[in-house]
What does this fold into?
Amino acid sequence: MQPAVFLDRDNTLIANDGDLGDPNQVRLMDGVAGALKRLHDAGYRLIVVTNQGGVARGKYTEEDVDAVHQRIAALIDEAAETDGMLDRFYYCPYHPQASVEEYRRDHPWRKPHPGMLLQAARDLHIDLAQSWLIGDQPRDIQAGRAAGCRAILLNHGRSRHEPAEQRAEDATEEATEIAGTLESAVEVILNAAPARASTTARRTNLADDVAPAPTPMPASHSPRDVPDDTLRQMRQSMQELAEEIRLERMQRGDFSPLMMVAVLFQLLALLLALLGMLQLEQPAAFMNWMIGAGLVQLLVITTLLFDARR
It folds into this structure.
């Protein structure tokens, strides 16, 4: 388990107030590369988490998002004179009022939900309790706190009590610290406590965590990154449903008996699916286990629907 610093993208790493899908328009904010290198050298994994509602609004595609992220990673590595500064990008292309129908929904990855941070913790073995989030919007702070991280709100030099567009007082109160710049936020993190993982160990483990890519840039992940293999698709679906359960629990602040039953059914469904995977050489047995897992999954959904009405 390693500590990480989760980073918002727009107006935290790059200057951008709108929808950006053109890598040629990427401009790093002042001091970003040097600040990130200090965290990198201290042993923190650096993970970007960003809402990309421009995809849902039809302004650009997910491929454009990947291109922008490749450009950001390249500029930071070049400025810091260090390869592989950023470990991964996670982004959410969904929006509840999307103009593109396939993206019209809320999603546990969309900040202020903590889904991107929780997924990164699973993927990269992150210790969330020892990790931080840096962002300039209330939704960033809320996502970080919901995931169990400490969170720093960037106010870009504004007074703590100065009103600013889309800035909520409750987010200011939720933030662990307020910082004017990314450099000062990094100073807060490094003065609070040293990262427990060494840089050497961090880079060694990264080779095991990230699949080989045609370029050395960090991978960019969205909720749509589902493997083609049928069994992996089933596992991904189950993980997303489990994430919905986790999110529902955090939002409601309790754990009802029906929710407990749903969790138990979910575990049973996962167990049946796992047993089915062990029977791949026997198609009849495999199908029986998968049908059982599917029926139990229906029980999970039914239980959650009843619980939502209580």
Observations:
- Residues 230-308 form one domain.
- Residues 243 and 272 are 19 Å apart (CA to CA).
